[in-house]
């Protein structure tokens, strides 16, 4: 996964867009089952969302939701990306991107391709104003059944483990509510999401194992990606120079946005939580494409708890015939 929270003061928005396209191409090393981009317009979605506009078939879709445009398709990012998207990409205050390697849910359905636009199970009563839901991406693999059993989200549209995560997170406004939901995840997860009612704020979370890196360039645009190496490569092939590149530690939640209208984005809120992984989540494929140094540094800093194994019931003895 990858993305951008653009600084309104940046003098060269096209340069940040070049980085987004570079990150999407580099992200193909982590999956080519499907890929997509969500371009946020900066306009908050209303409670009564406008109807979808656009085109969709089994190979690809280009849909305008209230407040964002989501383009995705089967195959690699380079097959989904189109140069005619550049003007809208240059103008987008926030961009969420994803390339998929399917772990749960068929790779042949775009219902399982990210970014996903999901309504909130919690968007009722006092949270009704946030019923527009979220736009979100997830890298990892979690115990979706356990999450559904705990929170009871609405029936899913697709078959991924990502959708119930987003259903649970949508409509959660307070930091304790968000970190409680993140603590409940069991498995690998790195997440990026935007509330459609507040499109100038990006939420990032690294739960267990799945890597997530944040970078800030010299014009104060904020980016995120699964592999820190991608930012070093982007510097070689674009005009952007990064002031900082930091891999987040497990159990980190960040809320990023402008502290005041028109100001560059910054960390508005940061919180920690204890993530939970399964014993088999420590697989070298998690660090696909990493340099040996980056992989060793990240593995040495892991601090998740390990979920206890659920014992398998013993098989029944076959009945004997007298």
Instruction: Determine the mean pLDDT.
Output: 90
Oligomerization state: single chain
Instruction: Specify the biggest β-sheet.
Output: 9 strands, antiparallel
Number of helices: 8
CATH superfamily: Aminohydrolase, N-terminal nucleophile (Ntn) domain
Q: Give the N-terminus to C-terminus distance in angstroms.
A: 62 Å
Domain Glutamine amidotransferase type-2: 1-259
InterPro entries: GATase_2_dom, Ntn_hydrolases_N
Protein name: Glutamine amidotransferase type-2 domain-containing protein
Detailed description of the structure:
With 322 residues, this protein is α+β, with helices and mostly antiparallel strands. It has a single domain, classed as 4-Layer Sandwich (Glutamine Phosphoribosylpyrophosphate, subunit 1, domain 1). 21% of the residues lie in helices and 29% in strands. It is built from 8 helices and 17 strands. The protein has helices at residues 13-26, 77-80, 86-91, 144-151, 162-169, 175-183, 228-237, 292-300; strands at 2-5, 34-40, 53-56, 60-65, 68-74, 94-100, 116-118, 134-142, 187-195, 202-206, 213-217, 222-225, 242-247, 252-257, 266-272, 276-277, 305-306. The chain has a 9-stranded antiparallel sheet. Strands 7-8-9-10-14-15 form a 6-stranded antiparallel sheet. β14 and β15 form a beta hairpin. α1 (13-26) packs across α7 and α4 (144-151) runs parallel beside α5 (162-169). The protein starts with a strand and ends in a 16-residue tail after the last strand. Mean pLDDT is 90; it is low at 121-130 and 317-322.
